[in-house]
Design brief:
binds 6-chloroguanine, 5-stranded parallel β-sheet, Alpha/beta knot, elongated, two-stranded antiparallel sheet
């Protein structure tokens, strides 16, 4: 195993710590944990509960359905997590609450968060947390406009996005630089063997060995796919001269195709 420096430390506050084995034990992210590029510690607010029954939730003042996570066990867990990060010498820790009312996660948000050496993530359950806990929270992040039963899957989603951007996590074959969204476009289509599958051929240019032609074909494919599936992304993007030219070609081809 290659010796390496921890690049990102996660401390997770969760009532369901076992769920995080999904990210720490499998695939690309599992390898990053094993190689010590990222470090994870889990904090269960239940262990900070003061009463005999280890209560962590209670009914909401004012009535209504559902339970809330109580302030005290959560805040104690957050503080313990921050102390651990500070003992590790991490100066730029951020406390993030995963919640549907937070800022939407995007590739740009992921890049911004990569400036942190340590992140404390709160994964809440039930109807959420006592509002007063927000004094301990720096940011609220959501992964989309829908509601999950808890913040754990959201936390793992964000962690995965962050981890794969760290240097040394992906090998050359898995490089993140050509992923969708990196340059504001969707990734182009890909083909593998066999050359012919049920009468469908791999595009000739990909077999040509001409790297410049292949690069142009792929860029044009990316533009075509983005135009078709996510025109909103294209509208936000600053196009290079080459991209503008290819997009014009696509529009002309589409007009000709529709006549
Ligand atoms: Cl971050 N948490 C929960 N519970 N639901 C969500 C979410 C987060 N993002 C979208 N839905």
């Amino acid at each position: 195993m290659r010796a390496s420096k921890v690049l990102l430390t996660f401390d997770i506050v969760t009532l369901m710590p076992e769920m995080f084995s999904a990210i720490s034990d499998y695939g690309v992210t599992g390898r990053a944990f094993k190689e010590n590029i990222v470090n994870l510690n889990l904090w269960n607010p239940r262990e900070f509960s003061m009463d005999l029954h280890k209560t962590v939730d209670d009914r909401t003042y004012g009535g209504g359905p559902g339970m809330l996570m109580m302030a005290n066990p959560l805040v104690e867990a957050i503080e313990a997590a921050k102390v651990r990060q500070s003992n590790l010498g991490i100066k730029s820790s951020k406390v993030i609450h995963m919640t549907p009312r937070g800022k939407l996660l995007s590739h740009n948000e992921v890049k911004r968060l990569l400036s942190c050496k340590g992140i404390v993530i709160i994964s809440s359950r039930y109807e959420g947390i006592d509002e007063r806990v927000n004094d301990w929270i720096d940011e609220e992040i959501s992964i989309g406009d829908y509601v999950l039963s808890g913040g754990e899957l959201a936390a793992m989603t964000m962690m995965d996005c962050l981890i794969r951007q760290l240097p040394g996590v992906l090998n050359d074959d898995e490089s993140a630089t050509q992923d969708s969204f990196v340059d504001g476009l969707l990734d182009h289509s890909h083909f593998t063997r066999p050359e012919v599958f049920k009468d469908m051929k791999v595009p000739e240019v990909l077999l040509s060995g001409n790297h410049e032609k292949i690069r142009l074909w792929r860029l044009k494919e990316s533009l075509k796919l983005t135009l078709k599936k996510r025109p909103d992304l294209l509208a936000q993007k600053l196009l290079t001269k080459e991209e503008t030219r290819l997009l014009k070609e696509i529009q002309i081809e589409q007009e000709q195709g529709s006549i």
